[in-house]
């Protein structure tokens, strides 16, 4: 007898507030079907729609999706071009639906490398959804964890050079304020699809205490039930943040 996963959903208070996803496996999904990699990316865009909707419905606060890394420029030029076109087309197709679903869109990464039209469109999408109060959807595009830390370091150095900041007052807390997403809860759960068990320069600073979850499922196949499995695994873990298991158990009963 099969059990419908929806009969036993993770209780809302045990859900991760911030889910981050490395959406991997589009190319292999296509290769397994003797299709061009492009088709894998197209199917991957459909999975994005499914997972955004599922997170929205479940009441997740923030969903951060890794769409294009600073290293993905190393791919063949035709694939980079396809990804950029798909990025713009998906945004155009989805913006109305996202806005109606009360989703607030945000982009992180160095957008100066993108075409003017993509830069304009991402800014427009952020403005259009700025007042929405539902899911915060963060798209990491031309994003790299090292880039993020370097840009934070650069801004701090500018403050010092301008005489507004003493080097001695640079602490981890202050540095944090200059990194991306510092105004949002840190990622509770990282999901990576596609079977690889690595971070690939995603949110290096922000994931100091994130729970990591790896699945062999390829991104174009990923669905709401897979997300629920990841949430259930998350809910079963004890996060200790450096403390002992006893301390955590005692504070839970306090
Ligand atoms: C993830 O799928 C999409 C991006 C990195 C943009 P891949 O294209 O990396 O798929 P695989 O890893 O080759 O299967
Ligand atoms: C990570 O996937 C980047 C994105 C999902 C955007 P990659 O496929 O680029 O990662 P590596 O190269 O296998 O580490
Ligand atoms: Mg990959």
UniProtKB/TrEMBL annotation:
<feature type="binding site">
    <location>
        <position position="211"/>
    </location>
    <ligand>
        <name>Mg(2+)</name>
    </ligand>
</feature>
<dbReference type="GO" id="GO:0016094">
    <property type="term" value="P:polyprenol biosynthetic process"/>
</dbReference>
<dbReference type="InterPro" id="IPR001441">
    <property type="entry name" value="UPP_synth-like"/>
</dbReference>
<feature type="binding site">
    <location>
        <position position="37"/>
    </location>
    <ligand>
        <name>substrate</name>
    </ligand>
</feature>
<feature type="active site" description="Proton acceptor">
    <location>
        <position position="72"/>
    </location>
</feature>
<comment type="function">
    <text>Catalyzes the sequential condensation of isopentenyl diphosphate (IPP) with (2E,6E)-farnesyl diphosphate (E,E-FPP) to yield (2Z,6Z,10Z,14Z,18Z,22Z,26Z,30Z,34E,38E)-undecaprenyl diphosphate (di-trans,octa-cis-UPP). UPP is the precursor of glycosyl carrier lipid in the biosynthesis of bacterial cell wall polysaccharide components such as peptidoglycan and lipopolysaccharide.</text>
</comment>
<dbReference type="GO" id="GO:0000287">
    <property type="term" value="F:magnesium ion binding"/>
</dbReference>
<feature type="binding site">
    <location>
        <position position="24"/>
    </location>
    <ligand>
        <name>Mg(2+)</name>
    </ligand>
</feature>
<dbReference type="GO" id="GO:0009252">
    <property type="term" value="P:peptidoglycan biosynthetic process"/>
</dbReference>
<dbReference type="GO" id="GO:0008834">
    <property type="term" value="F:ditrans,polycis-undecaprenyl-diphosphate synthase [(2E,6E)-farnesyl-diphosphate specific] activity"/>
</dbReference>
<dbReference type="GO" id="GO:0008360">
    <property type="term" value="P:regulation of cell shape"/>
</dbReference>
<dbReference type="Pfam" id="PF01255">
    <property type="entry name" value="Prenyltransf"/>
</dbReference>
<feature type="binding site">
    <location>
        <position position="41"/>
    </location>
    <ligand>
        <name>substrate</name>
    </ligand>
</feature>
<keyword id="KW-0573">Peptidoglycan synthesis</keyword>
<keyword id="KW-0133">Cell shape</keyword>
<feature type="binding site">
    <location>
        <position position="29"/>
    </location>
    <ligand>
        <name>substrate</name>
    </ligand>
</feature>
<dbReference type="GO" id="GO:0071555">
    <property type="term" value="P:cell wall organization"/>
</dbReference>
<protein>
    <recommendedName>
        <fullName>Ditrans,polycis-undecaprenyl-diphosphate synthase ((2E,6E)-farnesyl-diphosphate specific)</fullName>
        <ecNumber>2.5.1.31</ecNumber>
    </recommendedName>
</protein>
<comment type="subunit">
    <text>Homodimer.</text>
</comment>
<feature type="binding site">
    <location>
        <position position="75"/>
    </location>
    <ligand>
        <name>substrate</name>
    </ligand>
</feature>
<keyword id="KW-0479">Metal-binding</keyword>
<dbReference type="GO" id="GO:0005829">
    <property type="term" value="C:cytosol"/>
</dbReference>
<feature type="binding site">
    <location>
        <position position="73"/>
    </location>
    <ligand>
        <name>substrate</name>
    </ligand>
</feature>
<keyword id="KW-0808">Transferase</keyword>
<dbReference type="InterPro" id="IPR018520">
    <property type="entry name" value="UPP_synth-like_CS"/>
</dbReference>
<feature type="active site">
    <location>
        <position position="24"/>
    </location>
</feature>
<dbReference type="InterPro" id="IPR036424">
    <property type="entry name" value="UPP_synth-like_sf"/>
</dbReference>
<keyword id="KW-0961">Cell wall biogenesis/degradation</keyword>
<feature type="binding site">
    <location>
        <begin position="69"/>
        <end position="71"/>
    </location>
    <ligand>
        <name>substrate</name>
    </ligand>
</feature>
<keyword id="KW-0460">Magnesium</keyword>
<feature type="binding site">
    <location>
        <position position="192"/>
    </location>
    <ligand>
        <name>substrate</name>
    </ligand>
</feature>
<comment type="similarity">
    <text>Belongs to the UPP synthase family.</text>
</comment>
<feature type="binding site">
    <location>
        <begin position="25"/>
        <end position="28"/>
    </location>
    <ligand>
        <name>substrate</name>
    </ligand>
</feature>
<feature type="binding site">
    <location>
        <begin position="198"/>
        <end position="200"/>
    </location>
    <ligand>
        <name>substrate</name>
    </ligand>
</feature>
């Amino acid at each position: 007898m099969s059990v419908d996963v929806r009969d036993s959903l993770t209780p809302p208070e045990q859900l991760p507030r911030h889910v981050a996803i490395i959406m991997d496996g589009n190319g292999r999904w296509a290769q397994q079907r003797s299709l061009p990699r492009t088709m894998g990316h197209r199917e991957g865009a459909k999975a994005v729609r499914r997972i955004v909707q599922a997170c929205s419905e479940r009441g997740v606060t923030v969903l951060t999706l890794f769409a294009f890394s600073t290293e993905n420029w190393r791919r063949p030029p035709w694939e980079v071009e396809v990804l950029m076109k798909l990025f713009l087309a998906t945004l155009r197709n989805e913006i109305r639906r996202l806005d109606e679903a009360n989703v607030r869109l945000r982009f992180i990464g160095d957008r100066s490398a993108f075409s003017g039209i993509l830069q304009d469109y991402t800014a427009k999408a952020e403005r259009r959804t700025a007042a929405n109060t539902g899911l915060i959807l963060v798209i990491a595009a031309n994003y790299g964890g090292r880039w993020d830390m370097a840009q934070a370091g650069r801004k701090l150095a500018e403050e010092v050079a301008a005489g507004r900041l003493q080097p001695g007052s640079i602490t981890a807390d202050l540095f944090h304020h200059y990194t991306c997403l510092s105004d949002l809860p840190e990622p509770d759960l990282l999901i990576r699809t596609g079977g690889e068990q690595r971070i690939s320069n995603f949110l290096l600073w922000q994931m100091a205490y994130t729970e990591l979850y790896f699945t062999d499922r390829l991104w174009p196949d990923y669905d709401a039930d897979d997300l629920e499995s990841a949430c259930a695994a998350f809910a079963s873990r004890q996060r200790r943040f450096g403390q002992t298991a006893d301390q955590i158990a005692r504070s839970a009963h306090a």
